[in-house]
Design goal:
- It is a single chain.
- The longest helix is centred in the first third of the chain and has 18 residues.
- This protein has 246 residues and is α/β, with parallel strands linked by helices.
- Strand 8 and strand 9 form a beta hairpin.
- It starts with a strand and ends in a 5-residue tail after the last helix.
- The chain has one domain: HUPs (Rossmann fold, 3-Layer(aba) Sandwich), CATH 3.40.50.620.
- The protein is built from 6 helices and 11 strands.
- A 9-stranded mixed beta sheet has the order 9-8-7-10-6-1-4-5-11, sandwiched between helices. The chain has a two-stranded antiparallel sheet with strand order 2-3.
Length: 246
């Protein structure tokens, strides 16, 4: 099997988010970054499990500058066989999807994995756009994937139950929680990652219709009012007069 896993660099979940004075960019000074957990824990690991069971190779791909190489090397340390970095600053989901599609269109991948979303924008846009650009079937938010020959059986959590679908390769899938279990790179993997190929590719020209006008932080949370259990009347009054349903 020839598999492609799309990975993103995102701020650490504990990072304090600050904006530049003009509100048009994220203030990255002192920011700690990680590989997007949905890409790492579920998409990448499930791809590796399939190759370990059936043979083949796993390539990871990232759109970003050279500062992303550390994140890419972690994917190689976890077990990916090779990596590709498209040397461009990701400006939108549209831009990223077009860059990945331009690389993948002639590579004949059996499966293309993405995480269900990134933890910074939570847009869930790139996988669907990528499938459309490559004219491939797309299964979103899959929590389980089993292969039999060239046919995959996938489980998707839906409201009130689980949807089970079957699809023949090639296709695009976005991985959700449950697809696999997180792997921690060991020392051998870390050392081997230094020798694995990381190919840098020039971006293609894309007419990006998306531009950032301004970012804004959400308003600070107000203090919480604690009501003693015996003061039910006061609780009812506050719910009627002060509570707001958002």
């Amino acid at each position: 099997m020839k598999l492609l896993v799309c990975i993103s660099k995102t701020p650490d979940t504990e990072a304090k988010i600050q904006l530049t004075p003009d509100g048009k960019q994220l203030d990255t000074s002192g920011m700690k970054y990680i590989m997007n957990p949905y890409d790492e824990w579920y998409a990448l690991v499930r791809a590796l499990e399939l190759v370990e069971a059936q043979g083949g190779s796993v390539t990871v791909i990232n759109v970003g500058p050279s500062s992303n190489d550390q994140i890419i090397r972690k994917a190689l340390a976890i077990g990916a066989h090779e990596a590709v970095r498209i040397d461009a600053e990701p400006t939108s989901a549209w831009f990223v999807a077009h860059q990945i599609a331009a690389f993948a269109k002639n590579e004949n991948y059996d499966l293309i994995f993405c995480g269900k979303e990134t933890i910074d924008y939570n847009g869930s846009e790139v996988p669907a756009m990528l499938a459309e650009l490559l004219d491939l079937p797309f299964v979103a938010w899959a929590s389980k994937l089993d292969m039999e020959g060239n046919t995959a059986t996938l489980h998707r959590d839906i409201e009130g139950g689980v949807e089970i679908v079957k699809v023949a390769t090639p296709f695009v899938v976005s991985a959700a929680k449950g697809m696999a279990e997180q792997r921690i790179p060991n020392m051998r993997g870390i050392m081997m990652a230094k020798r694995k190929p990381l190919k840098v590719v020039e971006p293609v020209a894309v007419d990006d219709p998306v531009s950032v006008v301004q970012y804004a932080l959400p308003p600070k949370k107000k203090g919480v009012k604690l009501i003693e259990p015996e003061h039910i009347d006061e609780l009812v009054r506050l719910l009627h007069e002060e509570a707001k349903v958002i």
